[in-house]
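Researcher: Quick one. two chains, 674 residues in total.
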Amino acid sequence: MRNGHSATSDQVTRWNPSRRELLGAGAALAIGGGLAGGMRFVSQNERGLRASVCITKVRDYHVDIAQRILDGFGVLGIGRDTLRNKSIVLKPNLVETARGQAHINTNHAVVVAAAEAFRQMDVKSVVVAEGQGHRRDSQIVLDESGMGQALREARLPFVDLNHDSFTKINNRGEWSRLGPLFLPDTILAADWVVSMPKLKTHHWTGMTCSMKNFFGVMPGIVYGWPKNVLHYAGIAESILDINATVKPALSIVDGIVGMEGDGPIMGTPKQTGLIVMGRNLPAVDATCARLMDLNPLGIGYLNGASGKLGPVREANISQRGETIQSLSSSFSILDEPHLRSVVSNRS
Amino acid sequence: MYSDLKAALKHAQTPDDTPAMRTLWNQTVLDRLVRNASPGGGFGYRPLSCAAPEPTALACLALHANDDPSPLISESLKRLAREQQKNGSIPVDAATPSATWPTSITILAWCMIHPERYQRNITAAMDYLLTIEGKTFRSDPHIYGHDTTLVGWPWIEQTHTWLEPTSYALLALRTMAMMDHPRARNALRVIYDRAIPSGGWNYGNSRMFQNPLRAFPSTTGIVLTALTGQKKDTTIERAVAFLLKELPLVRSPFSLAWGVIGLRCWDALPDDALRWMQTAITRDRLAPPSPLEDALMLLASAPVNLFAAHSQQRGSALFSQTGASHA
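Model:
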């Protein structure tokens, strides 16, 4: 484990990583995954891209989270006119569950609260959907996470994306060698796909948040359990391709209790007390990285996204609500060579 | 949706009523499975949805194991034959030709139900299966708990070996009386290498970095099923103990059914299992049970455990007829 100190934006700006440092050996080691050819880490120019991200303090899962999310909609300029009659898919992270280990997954209270907030905005429908990466059995994941009971009580339908019908579509990213993507029809039919990740460290990529969460829209029957096709095509590259193709409309990050250390499964809970929201996912993830005291441009997929899918540099992100400085806290990560760039901001 | 079944079972909840209870819910689930067949033939991952090879093959086995006279079996087996590719594989969908993991399960269905009728299909599928290998790579033992150079089967061509497809392939080899084949021996090595020290298996990683990972009931059940016929040892005993501890808490049909099948293969099924399954079938849930779940529950509760009972002799006889040379 490695603990560090808060980074200054100056430190982040000065650090000039090489392509090799960015991916390090990490992607090459991940279940046979490779450093895919043609990765376009040329991201230092964000070409005037700007985005807003809202950070909200939320003490625990018992407060009125729906109201905080509605407040976030207001801050981000998401009004009733934007959402009326839209079909919404909420995509939480349920990658793997274990009894008594609630910090692995997006908490059901946040998902239900988000659904309630959307319903108050006169949307046409809200569906919760997930294609978890390790366990084939969605029902046991719903049972063990408490998500199933919460969704039933809130009368929210759930779609198992691993076994959903799917359609072959053009890859709008082409960072990886995946070629066309096979996406679930539930995702393709939605007006708004909303990423609802957990704020966690990740032993390969450094962090897993809004963008990595979309590995869970790829149907397991086509990509496997784990979704090893994506590992072989390059983790960072696949994340970028999927996000470029799915075009998510919003992210709502459950950072009330996060995970540090050996994430995304075996880490320890980290009380952080916040929800992060934004319509541009690279900007949301960059903000989350700063809140975790990680270097966003040292995270391969964020470096690749910078200037292509959104802004990552702090100067190009308008932080609303709470400040990063007031809530930032160092998340410990594994002390592994391939994660050095992720904490290069720490002394 | 299940109110009739629930009411009936409420009056049958004494130990003496066990056979009646089994008959009652077996018939209900059988009827539901047949009702939920795809309109175009076969079975899908959701009721009445487009057919897919895995639920189709397992539904055929479930109907067969429960002596159901439905014509759906022969129609569905024919459908699987139509979906076979020129290379012998049966992919998830024609649009995903490298997602060939259903090939093994389809072989099981053809071989256990109509081996003579599908002899050529089985031979072609076996030939394909034996050409597919999970990719290997050299790794640092500090990172992975398993030996990444061992060869089993992947979910998708050109990816690493994982336990569920390897177990399905091993079941196919056993059904074909090919447990002496080098690929079967390698598959056993993969399975033993990836066992979680405290008992059971997950998707196929026993440890990552410093932390041992958690076992899953479904994969543990599938692997134990694939190991039927092997000599009982501490790895198997630990896996059985894991299931006996976990299954009383599991009410999800997929995990529970594979867990029960795995325990049945090792004569370790407790008396309570029927009641676990009854609860799983009648519980309230978000989505209606899928044909895959119903098929697995029917296989788990069938009078004869098809996976343990299917004799190697039958496969052997078939194999000698095909003239294929897999050894």
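Chain B is about 55% helix and 0% strand.
Researcher: Thanks, that's what I needed.
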